[in-house]
Amino acid sequence: MSFAIIADLPLGVYRGHVGEGDLDVVVSPARLHAALVCAAAAGPRAVQEGGRLLPCAQDDAALRWLELHPPDGIRLPRRWVNTTAAVAFRDEGLLKKSKSGWAVKKNGKPAAVSVAADGVFAWVWREAPPPPVRAALTELCADVSHLGMAECPARVWTGTGEAVQPSHVWDTEASLFSGSGAGVDVVAPAPGRGAVLAAGHAAMVAAVPSVKADAIKTDEQSVRAPVDGESLQLLRYVPCGGPVSTAPWSTVWLAPLDKPVEPDERVAWAVAVHRALISIIGDGAPGVVTGAYPRGVPRPANRIAIQFLDVGMPFACATSAPSTVAVLLPSDAAEMDVRVIGEALARLRVIRLPGGEQRAVVGQIEVTAGEDFWHPPRPGLRRWWITAPAAVADNRPPRGAWSVADTVAASVGLVWRDMFPVTGRSDARYRALAQAVGERGVRVSWASLITSGNLRRFVHKVQPGAVVQPYRALLSLGSVAGERTLVAIGQSRHLGGGLLTPVDLPAEEAAQ
């Protein structure tokens, strides 16, 4: 019989932090293990030894079983990251001295950054643990008061795997640089994690500060307990079943940045990331990165693409970072190329523009699937897409009748050009692609050319004498792509341009 630990968040909100205070978006097995350790060492089942409370023998054995047996599956509810920049000023008992005397200091901390969840989290094992372990875990789960921060209460209980179906299963052969990327990486306890947590707590409470060290300071700061990262392992869980991806970019790596990237500067920063990756890879960089292929080798419809995501965009792996660089790998990328690019991205820490301005990569790199990148639209709304900040026409307009909407449709067709068996060359092929996507339901609500400012900010390179034609458009992708698929269109789609961001409209308004 299978076994499951299930956690419900009564307030529907999860708040936790990892690393240097980055928002945690998933209740990981390591988070669950830490909560159970706390319940075992501070709850009614704890035993006293040498003036300290410790887990009893049965609970200690149950916790060590969790360290040796990562869950075979996890259930992740739909999640929405709230990045509202609200700040709470709380009285934490800190003092600050000024010319006018002593005052109570109130530090501002983010108050609304959290993750909303529309269901339960669960961790599932195909085989149930021994009866004593199962009995101990059942008792401990009842003593867990919260997961993450104390203001996020939780109800935790045990059950069977049949009671809750996992959404993801453990891929034992996956790594950050292999596989389709259609999964989520979570931290799990490794053997010895409980001992690491116990030792850290003992060290924190054992040292009694001296009178001098504990004296009032002129500018006091709150002290955060150190977090020991030993005896942890990173595991990937991939979605259960599902159709084969038709997304133009199936794997997306996400690296949070320390500062925002302005929309009109995305192309320049994407070029900087591209050059940095090529420099890290060195000689022999694959064609999917450089865009250079041997003579006679057909060019694929898409290669590596680099885009920037602003805080507040509704993508599934969103964090509180001011900006996130997304590195997109096409669906037909070779496994070796995926590994090379992934390893280079892992070494990318700083991005620099020619003038010296820079952005630093902060936090953990996440991997997700291009097919399920955006949050789904809310009930009653229909998904449309808007170019952000602008797309650039791939070709000059064909001779004869041709509109900006036709240009948009042709740009969509070029992304999926391998899907449409169109014939002809040049103008005839361009028109055929626009017609083919129109038959698949692609609809352009409005489109307009951008004619002001430096138009070359929207594109990296153009042929001598070519006219740059950036445009903004609101469009529906029909049946060409799913409502959660990550897509970029236009000539600059590989380097910071033409990103299609979701715009959800009422169904009756979208039908007009």
Question: Overview of this structure, please?
Answer:
The protein is of the alpha+beta class and 512 residues long. The protein folds into three domains: 191 residues; 124 residues, Alpha-Beta Plaits; 130 residues, no CATH class. It is 22% helix and 28% strand. A seven-stranded antiparallel sheet has the order 13-1-12-7-14-16-15. Strands 23, 24, 25, 26 and 27 form a five-stranded antiparallel sheet that branches. A hairpin with a 3-residue loop joins β3 and β4. α5 crosses α7. The protein is globular, with a radius of gyration of 26 Å. The N and C termini lie far apart (54 Å).
- DSSP helix fraction: 10-25%
Q: Give the strand tally.
A: 27
Strand content: 25-35%
Biggest sheet character: 7 strands, antiparallel
Gap between N and C termini, in Å? 54 Å
Uncertain runs are none
Secondary structure blueprint with pairings:
Elements: E1 3-8, E2 13-14, E3 17-18, E4 22-23, H1 29-42, E5 47-49, E6 52-54, H2 57-68, E7 73-75, E8 79-82, E9 87-98, E10 101-110, E11 114-117, E12 121-125, H3 131-142, E13 155-159, E14 168-170, E15 184-189, H4 193-206, E16 232-239, E17 249-257, H5 266-281, H6 287-290, E18 305-310, E19 323-330, H7 335-347, E20 350-352, E21 358-360, E22 366-369, E23 381-388, E24 391-392, H8 404-415, H9 426-439, E25 443-449, E26 470-476, E27 499-506, H10 507-510
Antiparallel strand pairs: 1-12, 1-13, 2-11, 3-4, 5-6, 7-12, 7-14, 8-11, 9-10, 14-16, 15-16, 17-19, 17-22, 18-19, 20-21, 23-26, 23-27, 24-26, 25-26
Helix pairs in contact: 1-2, 2-3, 5-7, 8-9
